[in-house]
């Protein structure tokens, strides 16, 4: 870093995104992207906005906000559209947490949570997951602390039930609960239906995973109109044109083709089950994922070694160095052909190792 970098941020450990290597072609199962392209109308919608790029985008994101409100059965003033769901999470951390209202979230979860907390100088506590890597609901029944829960969690893929989420939300109506539903469309229960009953609940989602638009950087939050008004205060104090017109148009088009994306989600769930069964047959322990990835480990091979050897053979998976999960790898679910190729690579690696 330079000698000009402010001391208050000099100790910041930034988030590490998944590899995006350019040295060769890989079967890319490391960043939880969809293996399927966006619906056919998305490209046409984007093309229709290209000739208007000299104009600023709509700061209210009116059309997309209205369509999201219709899709999720809420009022438009209960929706905020953002530049990826990371942005709404950052806004929420800023809006609803401080020294008097510190954050709590799991010790094994989305890696951006501690980064946002440190960036915004918010005290936080990381609560250990249970031995089976599930979240203990009782740990979050505390007063005065803003709770952040990824559901399904990442990188484990495990999900709480809607009743468990509601128990956490209802326990203390004077603190905000943020439920990050980036992967909810792959088999978990959404808490969006609770936002009209609990004004302290904020649900965030993204177009990156189930709607095949990771490159568009489009997310949204749904909550009471009071919470959304707070988040808009921060948005309009930082970047009022936070969503570009191409992404907004793509989002509107995607919402009009829900059946296409739902079918893709069901295909990914099918491929997830196939992958889980195949890895289990090879002696792996695979957690019960409700996301578009699986989290797996084996006594036959170390997690880092499997990651490295898969990469050597043209398959990218995600390894984490954190001690408790260093034996695991997170494997994004791709097409059936991609998953069969991955399983064959794993078989080859194990055979070579055990010769």
Write the layout of secondary structure elements.
Blueprint: E1 27-28, H1 40-50, H2 62-72, E2 79-82, H3 84-96, E3 103-106, H4 112-119, E4 124-127, E5 146-150, H5 162-171, E6 177-180, E7 201-206, E8 219-223, H6 225-238, H7 245-255, H8 258-281, E9 284-286, E10 293-298, H9 303-312, E11 315-316, E12 318-319, E13 328-332, H10 336-353
Parallel strand pairs: 1-11, 3-4, 3-5, 5-6, 6-7
Antiparallel strand pairs: 2-8, 7-8, 9-10, 10-13, 12-13
Key terms:
355 residues, alpha/beta, Aspartate Aminotransferase, domain 1, Aspartate Aminotransferase, domain 2, 2 domains, 13 strands, globular
Describe this structure in words.
This protein has 355 residues and is an alpha/beta fold. It has two domains: 27-36 and 259-350, Aspartate Aminotransferase, domain 1; 40-256, Type I PLP-dependent aspartate aminotransferase-like (Major domain) (Aspartate Aminotransferase, domain 2), CATH 3.40.640.10. It has ten helices and 13 strands. Strands 2-8-7-6-5-3-4 form a seven-stranded mixed sheet, sandwiched between helices. A four-stranded antiparallel sheet has the order 9-10-13-12, covered by helices on one side. Helix 1 runs antiparallel to helix 7 (245-255), helix 3 crosses helix 4 and helix 8 packs parallel to helix 10 (336-353). It starts with 26 loop residues before the first strand and ends with a helix.
